[in-house]
Design goal:
Helix content of chain B: over 70%
Strand order of the largest sheet of chain A: 2-1-3-10-4
Largest sheet of chain A: 5 strands, mixed
CATH superfamily of the largest domain in chain A: Periplasmic binding protein-like II
Number of helices of chain B: 27
Distance between the termini of chain B: 43 Å
Strand content of chain B: under 5%
Oligomer: heterodimer
Distance between the termini of chain A: 82 Å
Largest sheet of chain B: 2 strands, antiparallel
CATH architecture of the largest domain in chain A: 3-Layer(aba) Sandwich
Shape of chain A: globular
Number of helices of chain A: 15
CATH class of the largest domain in chain A: Alpha Beta
Radius of gyration of chain A: 23 Å
CATH topology of one domain in chain B: MetI-like fold
Number of strands of chain A: 10
Largest interface: A-B, 52 and 44 residues
Order of helices and strands of chain B: HHHHHEEHHHHHHHHHHHHHHHHHHHHHH
CATH class of one domain in chain B: Mainly Alpha
CATH superfamily of one domain in chain B: MetI-like
Number of domains of chain A: 2
Strand order of the largest sheet of chain B: 1-2
Radius of gyration of chain B: 26 Å
Shape of chain B: globular
Structural class of chain B: mainly alpha
């Protein structure tokens, strides 16, 4: 026999259930979907609501941008206001170190991560450390997959970036058009660069540029006695203070953000071309919140997610037919003179070999 | 059957005797009849096994006996873990399947010329920091403790302000000031003098030495200020009466008397500053200047080389342990009494006008360099929407504070984590240290002679190596990715501070006070509760406060061991430094203000580590 308390609980549950289902049905993502996909999303929303949170690591997206993304994510899937997206911004080295430790110790705390190191991510996918997930959004990234900028079934890129020469127009009048013009533009010690011995983004850029520039060019860069930094924010902020006159690892997105606060950063899209570093977005195998992770990955790759990322971070979207709201800072892939780099054909050994060559130039 | 004897026990008598006796100097103690009585109740000269036997026979239960031993065993385990982990990993290659033992990590390191450069830079920085901070710290202590310079009491407190800065924050603030091109000083020079100052450049080993010397000077100050205040001025007077000059007296009387304190401080500064990685990380590493702690940090990051990190850590650990042992050996072999049995009143040296000006200038310059300038730079950066190297009052904004304190998710949890880690870590360290000190000071067997130096070893091991050791050992355990792995590492690193502090205080408490209680029928817990702990209370409070401040600022181990949700404020400062200078400055200012406010509040309530 049931007690009055149990009756009250049943009554409450009976009243709440339709409300919860209605909320899920009313979610924009559910409304836009049909058939099997609609049922899949409804099921994911149900489980994600129970999970209540998601842990996300990234190396580029600023926490403020993530707040905007999280708010839009909750709205799109009708998730409760207390659903948390625990976000941490790390350097690529820190992020990979953290994930390697968690994967090897089988103590996962992170669900989703994004890092501009597609070779490492592909290797982890081969080691089954990355969850196989065929997001319906992958259908909108067919060109990116063809270019070797993702790995269908495991990861696509949530935004790509390029590293170019950047300077502060208050401190330097630079009119060059080529990477070669950078050499000699500033005195030694006033130039910053990425450390390819530690950063995969810097190494990837080196590998791409080596296809269009000879080794001598990099030896000339080394003669500028570069200051080695690890975060795109630092490259930009040192230009703003005048500490460095130029960087070879400027991220146009950082110029956009700094210029909005009154800085005067300018960058060069060199005639030799640029190397597109895809920020690979993936779910970890054994993620503590798998349903939330799948929804998050779908959302980030959706048109709505891409709009926020490009508007706030000036990253380059890989979504087919995406029209960039910031063509100067984040041009569409089709408008970029990108150096052909099929990341799927590069192995960890290739990476090590390139690291050795680059380190020998910059850290003799 | 042992008598319970609780009804016969009058703890109040023993406590009042103990407090009164402690208040008397040795010369006067003979006049205290009750003290004499208390010493006649039970002989105080028991040693070794006879003392142990007496301890048992006087009513100590197994638990009472085991508690201190358990604390010593825990301490030994905590010391051994990171050492064992680092040593073991240095001889392993984990890429092989199965993992193999090899010396190849050592071979690789010894054939790498950059390792030699890193070692040279580290040793150079460590020695220079030790010397400069010693000169600064001793000068400040002498000015405050022995001279008639005005505002001595205020200076005594202001000298410690840098102690509340995390060294990383100190480095960041000096980067804002002394950066060769975009620094505040350089920009001011360009604006007002019309040219750059060519020698301003913090990005070198000299910059590391400068920042570390400023922030380690208070350590020496803390070591020296007590002995310098208690020093018998009659000894110096005797020298002068016999025609010795000021400098002769200083070199042959004052300095030798202070030598143990100065040496202790210097060696602590040497090993901790050489092992500190956050200052070189921000000042030296971007400019290609290698130092061992930053090499260890980088080797533990992707693409990681834990073998290299472990070998570097092992070598560094061995050097610091040897230095610590040499220091302990040196101190143990000598006796320097600054406090004598004869009645005297420490009195200040009357400086002339020039001397006072010089002393005042020393104080003012130090406070300007160590506190005013760094804090001003941080405040200016924190109030700017984007830092351009120049403060623009018309653009002042509180948005950095607003974001960091109210909108950055990690800050709030980090404040809680830091407070939790510091409170729990300080409490556990204190409990361990207290019991270990009791074991060492109340048992004069050969074991206690060995135990103290062994348990003091972590003080000589850099935090990053302790973090690395625990990471290697505990990565596959449930402790990984929890705040407890950080608590374990920080307790392992800092419990010797509690041990040494409480052991020093216990040394000044005659065991007869405890024996009085025991002979009056108190059991061990009653004796601890009513006699020992009340007598130790000021030292316990001061030590806890010191540990709390140290743990709040701790970064070396935390940066390797933190995980999602377990970030501390110090870790967040590093994370924010990769986003926006303004955010770092806002959080750093908040951290410093909170710590200084807490310090002053406790100071007002009579809790201070100044005199401990």
């Amino acid at each position: 026999m049931q007690t009055p308390g149990q009756y009250a609980a049943l009554l409450l549950a009976a009243n709440l259930f339709p409300l919860i289902s209605a909320a899920a049905q009313d979610a924009p993502a559910v409304q836009q979907a049909t058939g099997v996909e609609r049922a899949r999303i409804q099921e994911l929303i149900k489980v994600a609501t129970q999970e209540g949170e998601l842990d996300y690591l990234d190396t580029v997206i600023q926490p403020e941008t993530n707040d905007t993304l999280a708010a839009a994510f909750r709205q799109r899937y009708g998730l409760p206001a207390n659903f948390k997206v625990n976000y941490t911004l790390l350097t690529p080295g820190n992020l990979i170190t953290r994930l390697e430790q968690e994967i090897r110790s089988k103590r996962l705390t992170a669900d989703v991560a994004a890092v501009g190191s597609p070779v490492w991510v592909a290797e982890e996918a081969r080691q089954r450390a990355i969850m196989a997930y065929d997001s319906p959004e992958y259908a909108n990234y067919s060109k990116s997959f063809q270019l070797g900028l993702g790995n269908k079934g495991y990861f696509a890129f949530n935004g790509a970036y390029i590293f170019v020469a950047m300077w502060n127009t208050e401190n330097l009048k630079f009119k060059g058009t080529s990477w070669r013009d950078v050499v000699g533009a500033v005195p030694p010690g006033r130039f910053s660069y990425g450390d390819c011995s530690k950063s995969d983004s810097a190494l990837g850029t080196y590998m791409g540029l080596r296809k269009v520039l000879d080794k001598g060019f990099f030896e000339s860069l080394a003669k500028l006695k570069p200051i080695f930094l690890y975060k795109s924010e630092l490259f930009a902020s040192r230009l703003v203070t005048g500490e460095d006159l130029m960087t070879g690892m400027g991220l146009p997105g950082r110029a956009y953000q700094a210029n909005q606060k009154g800085a005067t950063l300018e960058f060069l899209v060199p005639s030799e071309g640029v190397v597109l570093i895809p920020q690979s977005l993936f779910i970890l195998q054994g993620a503590p919140h798998p349903a939330s992770s799948k929804l998050w990955l779908d959302f980030i790759l959706s048109d709505e997610g891409q709009q926020i990322i490009v508007e706030r971070e000036a990253m380059i979207s890989g979504r087919d037919g995406f029209k960039s709201p910031l063509p100067k800072y984040a041009p569409s892939i089709g408008n970029l003179n990108a150096v052909a780099m099929n990341w799927n054909l590069i192995s960890m050994d290739d990476l090590q070999s390139a690291r050795g060559e680059c380190s020998a130039i910059f850290h003799p | 059957m042992r008598e319970a004897s609780a009804p016969q026990f009058s703890i109040h008598n023993c406590y009042s005797i103990s407090v009164e006796c402690l208040g008397l100097r040795n010369s006067q103690r003979a006049d205290c009849e009750e003290c004499e009585v208390s010493t006649t109740i039970e002989p105080a000269a028991l040693t070794g096994d006879s003392r142990l036997h007496a301890w048992y026979s006087s009513g100590a239960t197994i638990t009472q006996f085991l508690l201190p031993i358990l604390a010593v065993a825990t301490g030994a385990f905590l010391v051994a873990m990171p050492i064992f982990g680092t040593l073991l990993r240095g001889f392993m290659i984990t890429d092989a399947d199965p993992a193999a033992f090899t010396a190849s990590n050592y071979v690789r390191l010894f054939t790498d010329p950059t390792a030699g450069t890193a070692a040279f830079n580290t040793v150079l920085a460590g020695i220079c920091v030790m010397l400069f901070s010693c000169i600064i710290g001793c000068s400040l202590a002498w000015v405050v403790g022995r001279t008639n310079v005005p505002f001595r009491k205020v200076f005594g407190i202001l000298n410690l302000v840098p102690f509340f800065f995390s060294p990383y924050v100190g480095a960041m603030s000096w980067l804002y000031i002394l950066a060769p091109n975009g620094g505040i000083l350089q920009k001011l020079s360009k604006t007002y003098l019309g040219h750059e100052i060519p020698f301003i450049n913090i990005y070198n080993v000299g910059g590391v030495i400068w920042v570390l010397s400023l922030f380690y000077a208070p350590y020496i100050y803390l070591f020296v200020i007590g002995p310098i205040r208690n020093m018998d001025g009659a000894l110096e007077d005797a020298g002068r009466v016999h025609g010795a000059s000021f400098w002769y007296t200083f070199r042959h009387i004052t300095l030798p008397m202070l030598l143990p304190s100065i040496l202790s401080g210097m060696l602590i500064v040497l090993v901790t500053s050489a092992g500190l990685f956050d200052v070189p990380l921000s000042i030296a590493e971007p400019h290609g200047i290698k130092m061992i702690p930053t090499e260890i940090y980088r080797a533990s990051q992707y693409p990681s080389d834990f073998g290299r990190a472990a070998v570097l850590g092992t070598i560094m650990m061995l050097i610091t342990i040897l230095i610590s042992l040499a220091q302990q050996n040196y101190i143990r072999g000598r006796r320097f009494y600054t406090v004598t049995g004869k009645g005297y009143r420490p009195r200040p040296i009357e400086l002339g006008r020039f001397g006072r000006m010089l002393a005042l200038s020393t104080e003012l310059i130090f406070i300007l360099m160590s506190s005013v300038l760094p804090l001003s730079a941080l405040v200016m950066v924190s109030l700017s929407p984007i830092w351009t190297g120049t403060f623009r009052p018309s653009f002042v904004t509180l948005q950095n504070y607003n974001y960091v304190l109210f909108h950055y998710r990690i800050t709030q949890s980090a404040i809680f984590n830091s407070a939790y880690l510091a409170t729990v870590g300080a409490s556990i360290s204190l409990a361990l240290g207290c019991l270990q000190a009791y074991f060492i000071r109340r048992r004069t067997s050969w074991i206690s002679h060995i135990v103290e130096p062994i348990l003091s070893l972590p003080l000589g091991i850099p935090g990053i190596i302790i973090g690395l050791g625990f990471l290697i050992l505990l990565i596959g355990t449930p402790l990984y990715a929890t705040i407890w792995i950080m608590i374990v590492a920080t307790v392992a690193h800092f419990f010797p501070i509690a041990l040494r502090s409480i052991a020093a205080t216990l040394l000044s408490l005659n065991p007869e006070l405890e024996e009085c209680a025991r002979s009056s029928g108190a059991n061990w817990f009653q004796m601890m509760r009513y006699i020992l702990i009340p007598l130790l209370r000021p030292a316990l409070a001061a030590t806890w406060l010191l540990l709390f401040v140290i743990l709040i600022r701790e970064l070396g181990a935390s940066l390797l061991l933190y995980n999602q949700g377990t970030e501390t404020v110090s870790v967040v400062l590093v994370l924010l430094s990769e986003q926006n200078f303004g955010y770092v400055a806002a959080l750093a200012v908040t951290q410093v203000v909170v710590l200084i406010t807490a310090f002053f509040l406790m100071q007002r309530n009579g809790i201070s580590f100044l005199e401990n």
